[in-house]
Structures are given as structure tokens and as C-alpha cells.
């Protein structure tokens, strides 16, 4: 993450302080509040820099997340459903983000459409517990994965553009 744009993006994402996961009843609500504030800051930064590329929401407990992500390639918008659960060992363990419709279409993915982040992102996450959160997983995990994998899958003809129905 050596370029200025990446540094600017990362500096716009607040670091988290509370070391708590879903099993830590009272502390989890505090951590979840930090997660939401971090996500809001990241989304606002993305909108300001004309780089809005995902939408996320969670269940009421903040343990299951789902939404959409998209990438523009050759002036066409490719949109995908995303989902992930917060691991019980969170924040020590990062979430495993899945794009179910791409399951089996690339070697850089695990069963169930979980994107492969083990080589680059997971060591970074491990060195920065509990400072990194969901917004960091999006910025440092899913974003770079989409930027590399989706254009490659498009060029190989594995993914084709689907025009949205206007009805």
C-alpha cells in the first residue's frame, strides 16, 4: 500500500480500539458502534473521492453482513452480492468475505465463494488486532481482490456483462 491514493484512503478509515467479538456481550456493542463509525467514514471518503464501490448492511446483532459490491471495467458496471459472518474469534480472526456467484470461477477463492486473502491481507490483519475492522477488510481485502480478479475473469470470458432490467 505504498501509493498516495492508498495511503489517503487508509488514513480516512478510523482505527478501532475495542478488542471484542460477538461473544463479549457488553463490549461487542461498543465494538460494533466503532465498526459502524469506521464504515460510515470510509463510505463518506469513497463518495467524496468518486470511488463508491460497495453497500453493506448487517443483521440486528451485527454478526451477519450482506450487500453489494461493484467494479467498473471497460465502462461497464459489474455488480455482485457479498456476504460474510463475523467469526466468533473476531477481531483476532478477520471475516471471510464471500461472493457466492463467483464460486468456482477462480483459483483465488475458497468453497462457498469466499475470496482468498491468506497471502497478503491475513498477516496484515494479524499484526494489527484489534485496530482493523470491517471497513479495513473491504479496503485492503475485497477492493484489491476485485480490482485484480474481476478484470481477469472478464478477459477470460468467465464473467460476462449482464444488463440490468429496467422493470
Automatic annotation (TrEMBL):
GO cellular component terms, A-Z: cytoplasm
Domain of life (superkingdom): Eukaryota
Alphabetical keyword list: Ubl conjugation pathway
GO BP terms, alphabetized: protein K69-linked ufmylation
Cited InterPro entries: UBQ-conjugating_enzyme/RWD, Ufc1
Keyword Transit peptide attached: no
A molecular function (GO) term: UFM1 conjugating enzyme activity
Keyword Nucleotide-binding among record annotations: no
Matching Pfam families: UFC1
SUPFAM superfamilies per UniProt: UBC-like
Family, per entry: Belongs to the ubiquitin-conjugating enzyme family. UFC1 subfamily.
Function: E2-like enzyme which forms an intermediate with UFM1 via a thioester linkage.
Name of the protein: Ubiquitin-fold modifier-conjugating enzyme 1
Organism of this sequence: Apolygus lucorum (Small green plant bug)
Lineage: Eukaryota, Metazoa, Ecdysozoa, Arthropoda, Hexapoda
